[in-house]
Structure formats: structure tokens, C-alpha cells
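[step 3/7] fold_predict: job queued, chain A
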Amino acid sequence: MTVIDEVLIANEIYSRTHELRKLTPRPERKLAVLTCMDTRLSIRTLGLKTGDAHIIRNAGGIVTDDALRSLVVSHYLLGTEEIMVINHTDCGLMHTTELDLRTRIQNRTGTAAVSPAFFYAFQNIDENVRHQLQKLHTHPWIPKTVSVRGSVYDVSNGQLREIKIS
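[step 4/7] structure written:
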């Protein structure tokens, strides 16, 4: 049995008492969080419960075109008023470079690909958070009335450390 098979079985059991049916797509706390896909960061880590916030995840917590699309939809269609960008210590993208990762993948697959164009590897986590915040602060579709803030989650102690734009 695969993990996906196990998930499907677990979902069948869950669906019998599905308690989330009363939630709406609008986040209760009017918050959107852009964060990494890392398993060590969850809504529990942030003191949130299911339905409190939109959680948008990708490798590195990067403001990509697709993440930006989700944040714009979150604000204009679903009422979020605050955006939080969270990166974390010990991120896999901090332990590689664009070239090394692309080369590793091409060597394993035997082929080059045009997409994704970038993996957004980085070395300095604070600088990376500032860069993501800057992308949001300067985008014409993110209103100045939307609070945009960023943090680094320390996976060793569970604490968030806010990052300010210089």
C-alpha cells in the first residue's frame, strides 16, 4: 500500500464526520501567509486554527507569479487585509545554488527543461525575506492599506523573528 492509498483511506474515514463544511473560503482573521512548504511550519506553529488564514506555500516562501496571483485573489476576492511572509532556518534552498540544483536535476533526468526558469536559491535568509517583502510593497496590485510583514521561523526553537525592511 502506498502513502497515497493510506491518505485516501484516512480521508474516507474523515469524510464521515467532516466538521469543516461550515467554514467559508474567507479567512476568519483576514490574514494570508506566504511560507515555505517545509513540514516543520504549520498553522499550529503560528497559533492559528483551520479557517483563520490563507496559507500559500512554495519552496522557499518566494513571491513568485503564482504566489502573487494567490495573494491578489486572497485580498480582492476573499477579503484578506494582512500578508505575512515567512522563511525559515535550515531551508533546503539555502544549501544550494541555482546552477548546482539545475545541474543535479539535469544529471538525474538526462534532460534540460525551460520550466521552472528559476528555483530561487538563496544564502542569506534575512535578505531573502526583505527581497520578498520589497516585491509585495512595490507591486501596484498590493494596496498600501494591506499590512505586509515578514519573519524568519527558527526550526530549532520554534520562534518567529520579525524582519524589517531597511
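[step 5/7] annotate
The mean pLDDT is 95.
The longest helix spans residues 125-138.
exit 0
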